[in-house]
Design a protein that fits this description.
Layout lengths: L7 E3 L2 E5 L5 H4 L5 H4 L10 H12 L5 E7 L5 E11 L4 E9 L8 H16 L4 E7 L3 H9 L3 E11 L5 E10 L3 H14 L8
Parallel strand pairs: 5-6
Antiparallel strand pairs: 1-2, 2-3, 3-4, 4-5, 6-8, 7-8
Amino acid sequence: MTAHDIALEGHGIRLSPAAASDAAEAWPLTDPELWSRMTSPWPDSVDAYAAHVERQLATPGLFAFTVRDAETGVVRGSTTFYEYVPAQGRVEIGTTWYGRAFQGGRTNPAAKLLLLGHAFETWGVNRVALRCDARNERSARAIERLGATREGRLRRHRIAPDGSVSDTLYFSILREEWGGVREGLEARLAASPSPGVAG
């Protein structure tokens, strides 16, 4: 098992390498409904969440982060890079969740700005992909608001924890599109409430 050492901070949040010890703070923000569009079952206890993080740490090409308030250190959620293939210049961002108090505000665009900046400017990738359950309209809208392009639909691509089978929507941002996406995210953050406000 290996942990990464990538730490990103800006726009009122901090993305720190996820650790099993984060579970006591992170798990109370979750619930079965919030987790329902993930491909893994809801971790139904602090110990189960810690085990979830341990599995992430053991997955090659996956970089898990705990998202915190930069000033207070309070946990807001979690996100990851995964399927990072340096030789092919691509990575995906996903397995993202935020506590309900932090949805629909600054947290997601701030986190995506940090992650996309690292992917394109530090790693130098050509493509960042994002995906969601086709039934999750909230996530699809949030991804499109980032400036990602909807590429298509993979039919019967995922099995939800409840056993239902659904399609997956795929989105991407390319290296040449990053400048415009970055400007859009920065404008959203400049127009939103101050970092001290929930979200």
